[in-house]
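Anyone able to model this chain together with adenosine-5'-triphosphate?
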Amino acid sequence: MTATAKKEWSLNPGEEFRFEVGFKNTIELKLLSGHAELFGAELGPEATYTFSGFNGAIFSWQGCTLSVSGDNHNAYVAGETPMDSYINVHMALQQLRVRAHGGDMDAAPRVMIVGPEDSGKTSLARLLLNYAVRMDQKPLFVDLDTAGASMTVPGTVSVTPVTKTIDIEDGFMGYITSAAVSRPVDLPLVWQYGHELPSDNPVLFNILVNKLAAAIDKRAAADKATAGSGLIVDTHGSTDISKLETIEHAIKALRINTLLVVGNERMYSLLNSRLEAMSQGLPQRETTAIKLAKSGGTVDRDAVYRQQQTSRTIKQYFYGTTREPLTSFPTVVNFKEISVLRVGEDVRAPSSTLPLGETRKLTDTSVFEVELDESLFHSVLAVTDIARPADASANPGVEDTEGDDTVKTSTNNDWSEAVGAQAIGFVNVTKIDMEKNRFTMTSPVPGRLPKQVLLDGHVKWMEVV
Ligand SMILES: Nc1ncnc2c1ncn2[C@@H]1O[C@H](COP(=O)(O)OP(=O)(O)OP(=O)(O)O)[C@@H](O)[C@H]1O
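re: yes, here you go
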């Protein structure tokens, strides 16, 4: 449907207005009367909201009228939604928070959302966070969706204290960029995983989840309001039961007590049996699994759409949003000043290419120094919080014989600290001068790099002017 003209939509109580807007299109939406919300955040009465590259739903508990203008938004009003079950979940979580704030800290809701791709997990996380914040709670948002990270660049895991509602137009990244520009909120703690899916390197992924769990415990010990508000964990979409090992690990490490399984009966049933098995010998079952229906509004996003979404997320990390722009600054860095590392063996040649009889000696947590050359052009690198050994120099490794010519194995330096190192920020390699042996790196923080050990991942991003 093409609709450039302004149109009014009336919603009865319990209905939602669903729309899909492509990246090249824009719609403007205004609440004319009544009350309405987008994934749990209330629309203001006079505000005009602009959406581009977004699929969403404006839901109304009491009924409302909206004015919408723009093109190609495939809009319709739906009467059947899973909102009743979602609000019931929220109320149950809120009761647990009340118990926790009353002194029973073990009651604090520690919620993980799992389910297939495009089942609405991130949208549900956003809704539950917004409902919690609207009740003066300060939940932690734990993002284990490595491919589609919400609060920072992809290929990471992170935890963010959520104290304000998530931005209606700019979502999770809007929440973060507004922190830098206009609102005082805590920024996420981030770890560079460097691979796309948890199953690509489960050993490393589990190590990072343990780090994250330790950081959460530290925060909870210092901040009872946050501890009592609990946490909401978003995960990568998968129904492949053979790949649920990382989910099981995270359930234990983060002491999840409520597992929400969205939109997949089989996954619910299998996970429920696993939870039963995990609680064998314990006085009581620690994790309750709840089955939730997928919203009929969720949209299956194809690879191109996801790529555009990822690109926008990275752009917003470096340049903010349209409403709250950030400036990024170029910094020139000599090769000899930095070390770029990679963790994990998937950057190596596959085992099948090894000579017969040879076995792989590498592990999932092997750390490699990356040769500083043009292969790093456009890479998004994490600046870690670890110190560089004083005697480290560029490209100290010996040539690796296993096939991947961009990777060298360090012989001199012990980089074990890099496994599980926290990312204090990200830079984008925007220029490489092989004659002068230097990079130009762009970062939203001006000045010299605060630390000199960087972690590479799978993410490349090219700034399109
Ligand atoms: N009720 C709804 N109406 C319209 N669009 C929706 C609705 N709920 C979710 N969406 C959209 O559907 C898409 C998939 O939703 P979402 O990102 O929440 O799924 P997910 O399960 O987290 O996906 P992933 O597989 O990436 O983990 C998104 O574009 C989201 O904005």
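Helices lie at 83-101, 121-134, 171-181, 202-222, 224-229, 245-253, 265-278, 303-319.
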